[in-house]
Amino acid sequence: MKCPHCNTGIHEAFAVSTIVTAPIVINLANHAIAPGLIWILNHQRCPECHDSIILLERQTIGVAWTDWKPLKFMAYPRSRSRPIAKEVLDPYRQDFSEASKVLADSAKASAALSRRCLQAILRDRLGARKKDLNDQIEEVIVSGKLPSHIAEGLHAVRNIGNFGAHALKSTATGTIVDVEPGEAEWNLEVIEMLFDFCFVQPALAAKRKAELNEKLKQIGKPLIP
Ligand SMILES: [Zn+2]
C-alpha cells in the first residue's frame, strides 16, 4: 500500500487492537435488537516518514444485522495527501491542496474547489475564453492542444459530474452544489494530469533546452531559439 502521508510504497503491517466492545441492546418496548459492537483500531507507522496511519473498523456481533454494512475507514490522516509538483504555482496549487484536504469531510466542498481550479487552468494556461466550465472544456478539447488521455479525462469530468442535469456546476464557479459519486475524486485526478502537462513538462523542456544550448555554445554551434 501507499503511505497516505508521504505516498511511499510500504509493506502493510497493521498492529490490531480492540478498543471498544459494546453489548447487544434489546429494546423491551418494541423488542428491537441492536447488535453488539466491536471497534478495532489498526495502527501502523510509516517506515519512511514515521507518521501514524490509523484505520478504524467496526464489527457487529451476536445478531445478524443486515442493515449495517461492515465499516472500515481511515481515521488518521483523514485523507491521502496528494503531492503537488514544485513547478505548480498559486492559486492553482492552493485550490488543489484545499480540495484534496476537504475531500474526506465534504465531497461537495472539494468539487466546488476543484471545478474552480479546473476553470482557472483552462482559462489561464490553455486559452479558454468561454465563461462556463462545460463550454471551456469543449473549447480546449476542440483546440487539440491536449494529448488524448487528458482530453478524455476532461470529457469524463462533464460525464461523471452529469453537467447536463446540473447547469450550476459549470456556470457558478466555486459554488457548492450536489456531486455525483466519484466526481470530486475524478476532478482531482484530471487536475493532476493538467498540472503535469501545463507546469511540469514545460519546465522540464525548458531545462533540457538550456542544457543543450550550453553544450552547443561550448562547441561553437548556433543555439536553439
Ligand atoms: Zn509515509
Task: Describe the protein's topology.
Elements: E1 15-22, E2 25-27, E3 32-34, E4 36-45, E5 52-61, E6 71-76, H1 92-102, H2 107-124, H3 133-143, H4 148-160, H5 167-171, H6 183-218
Antiparallel strand pairs: 1-4, 2-3, 4-5, 5-6
The structure holds zinc ion (ZN).
- What pattern of helices and strands is seen along the backbone? EEEEEEHHHHHH
Distance between the termini: 45 Å
Q: List low-pLDDT spans.
A: none
Proportion in helices? 40-55%
Q: Count of DSSP E strands?
A: 6
Provide a count of the helices.
6
Strand content: 15-25%
Rg is 24 Å
How would you describe this protein?
This protein folds into 2 domains: 62 residues, no CATH class; 120 residues, no CATH class. It is 42% helix and 18% strand. β2 and β3 form a beta hairpin. The chain is flat, with a radius of gyration of 24 Å. The protein is an alpha+beta fold and 225 residues long. The strands form 2 sheets. It has a 4-stranded antiparallel β-sheet with strand order 1-4-5-6, with no helix packed on it. It starts with 14 loop residues before the first strand and ends in a 7-residue tail after the last helix. The protein is built from 6 helices and 6 strands, in the order ββββββαααααα. α1 packs antiparallel against α2 and α2 crosses α3. The longest helix has 36 residues. The mean pLDDT is 89. The site of zinc ion has 8 residues, from loops.
